[in-house]
TrEMBL record:
Coiled coil: none annotated. CDD domains: PBP2_CysL_like (cd08420). Belongs to the LysR transcriptional regulatory family. PROSITE patterns: HTH_LYSR (PS50931). This is LysR family transcriptional regulator. Keywords: DNA-binding, Transcription, Transcription regulation. It comes from Pseudoxanthomonas mexicana. Residues 1-58 form the HTH lysR-type domain.
Amino acid sequence: MNLHLLRIFFMVADHRSFSRAAEVLHVSQPAVSKAVRELERQLDLTLIERGSGGARGTKGVRLTDSGSALYEHARGIFALERAALEDIRARIGNQRGRLVVGASTTVAGYWLPPYVAALSTGLPSIDVRVVVGNTQSIAQTLIDCELDVALVEGVVDDPRIVATHWRDDQMRLVAHPASPVARRRKLGTDELNRQPWLMREPGSGTRLVTEDIMQTAGIEPDRRVELGSNEGIARAVAAGLGVAILPECVVRDLAQLGRLKYLRHPVSGQMRPLYLLQLRERPPSPLVRAFTAILAERHG
């Protein structure tokens, strides 16, 4: 496959525009169109839909199924190319090393800081950047080679990623102390179903583990309320809005202050795994190896 033609196709697909791709590549638009057609000829595949608005329709370039598949492959190829260049540049001259760590929200706020501090203490000349998002977004950013390594709360099922168990995180079922469910010695599933359940957004590791726990316990609440952070959910529970399953590291301080209470139910106290993610086709840099060694040593 001609990588020059592939790069031009990738830019067209990425910008959803022939003209914008031409501007970025500093070539003429006819040259871009010719390159895409030549790639289609070489592959014997139609990559871009034409007709009914055409490739230059008001909604921009539309890819065929084959075009979408090739775009995903091209994105991985050129992301790896970018990562290789950055790694080589960091190893030559007088440039300082740089590590970009992705972390899901709870990991970033509660588990990650001491490990980053240990790395910075041992290697004071390096720069560390932490990118925070939910598990799904962090996994995609890793695939795009914008991260060197990642730590997340949810399971990631993608053949491009190697997920290694790092440690466990205890989950707690919590409610406001004055809530009727907080005063029950034996709490039934039917009563839990009648409570408003506070949940994270889809793509969150906490959301995924909560839904798994609820399904196993047969909990099917009549009402759900969705919030975008564990801290927001914890404070909403403390305000009496409903019940939630949250990591103990998030709710511990509020429980000690008496602003929420751990409920007596088998779903409370269950453990969820946290994962170290690395890109399968990307060899770890010396900084990544140093960081993963700290993760193993300090946890062990």
